[in-house]
Specification:
CATH topology of the largest domain: Ribosomal Protein S5, domain 2
Number of helices: 8
Number of domains: 2
CATH architecture of the largest domain: 2-Layer Sandwich
Radius of gyration: 20 Å
Largest sheet: 7 strands, mixed
Structural class: alpha+beta
Helix content: 25-40%
CATH class of the largest domain: Alpha Beta
Strand content: 15-25%
Oligomer: single chain
Length: 347
């Protein structure tokens, strides 16, 4: 480190991601029970600004002023302090500064659009740039080592955040079929798939803007007693191999089959946990039925996936955009809360 008498400011925008093969269940220090892959999104993102100032008096504690979308948020601030405390073994310099963090999303938080993925990856990128600047190093935004470091730090805050620092797609979790895969950080995967997937569209249909009743953290913990857990981890790792083969070959039929099965498996795990819980809503199911009916009637390769929430991600190739978006307006928009949806895409 260079002189501690150094103030600074950095800002990062980081996207959410949508998992195609889901990770559900973790152990140790935010390690996944199975490997996963996700599309990196573009418009569903978090903007985070980090300012730091040398402390006037030495303190061995995190000093943080935090605002979310311009307002103080005690719950979020407490979560961030706990996260920063937890990474002092990685970034001990944080206790030498008064920290100011402001953050905001382009989408509703805690509703099943992986807000923790975008928020924690944006914060991790800020922290890693701060670390580099204090050490007098140039921060190259596409430096693989720095992205790996940011993915690692992001994982410590939210597992899925490890995947959000990479464009197009990322794999997280050790898997013998994928060289370089790791539990500590994600690896880029866009180069492993056919070009059609690099411009895939994701219309996020907001069935509910409300904060979900069971957090992802609690849901992961409930996997410890789930009778189907071990079979699920095996299934996910097998599905990852099959999905990556389909994506390499541009096999849309197999892609659709596996992605939809993964989404339903995730929610089946919630329903078979103890206590059981449901995050899907009636309009979630209505949208799923309409998607399948539209695909059967038109042969248009649209499919759905879900994160841990009620909102539906509608996935389809860019070349189908005009037809699909007309259908969305005609058939699906009224099933969204206040007609709200996000037109997103792989980015």
């Amino acid at each position: 480190m260079t002189s501690k008498q150094q103030s600074g400011s950095v800002q990062w925008q980081s996207p959410s991601n949508i998992a195609l093969v889901k990770y559900w269940g973790k152990y140790g220090r935010q390690y996944p029970r199975n490997a996963s892959i996700s599309f990196t999104l573009s418009k569903a993102h978090t903007n985070t600004t980090l300012n730091w100032y040398p402390k006037q008096e030495a303190q061995a504690a995190i000093c943080l002023n935090f605002t979310f979308e311009g307002q103080e948020n005690e719950a979020f601030a407490s979560k961030i302090v706990r996260f920063l405390d937890s990474i002092l073994d990685e970034m001990p310099f944080l206790v030498d500064y008064d920290l100011q963090i402001s953050s905001g999303n382009s989408f509703p938080h805690s509703s099943g659009i992986a807000s923790s993925a975008s928020s924690m990856s944006a914060l991790a990128l800020c922290l890693c740039e701060m670390e580099a600047l204090l050490a007098g190093k140039a921060f190259q935004k596409n430096d693989p080592q720095l992205l790996q470091r940011a993915s690692h730090i992001a994982r410590l805050g939210s597992g899925s955040a490890a995947r959000s620092v990479f464009p197009i797609a990322a794999i997280w979790g050790v898997h013998e079929a994928f060289e370089g895969s790791a539990n500590d950080y994600a690896i880029p995967a866009g180069h492993l798939m056919a070009p059609i997937f690099h411009t895939f569209q994701d219309t996020i249909l907001i069935v509910s803007k409300a904060e979900k009743e069971v957090s992802s953290r609690a849901g992961h913990a409930l996997m410890e007693g789930n009778p189907f857990a071990d079979l699920r981890y095996q299934q996910a790792n097998e599905n990852l191999v099959a999905l990556m083969k389909a994506m390499k070959e541009g096999d849309l039929d197999q892609f659709i089959s596996l992605v939809e099965a993964e989404a339903l498996s995730l929610h089946a795990l919630m329903m078979t946990s103890t206590p059981s819980y449901l995050l899907m809503r009636p309009n979630t199911l209505a949208i799923i039925e309409k998607i399948r009916a539209f695909r059967a009637a038109t042969a248009c390769p649209v499919c759905f996936t879900l994160d841990a929430g009620p909102n539906v991600h509608l996935l389809y190739p860019e070349k189908e955009k005009e037809q699909v978006q007309k259908w969305i307006v005609a058939e699906l928009k009224d099933l969204c809360e206040e007609g709200y949806l996000i037109e997103d895409f792989v980015g």
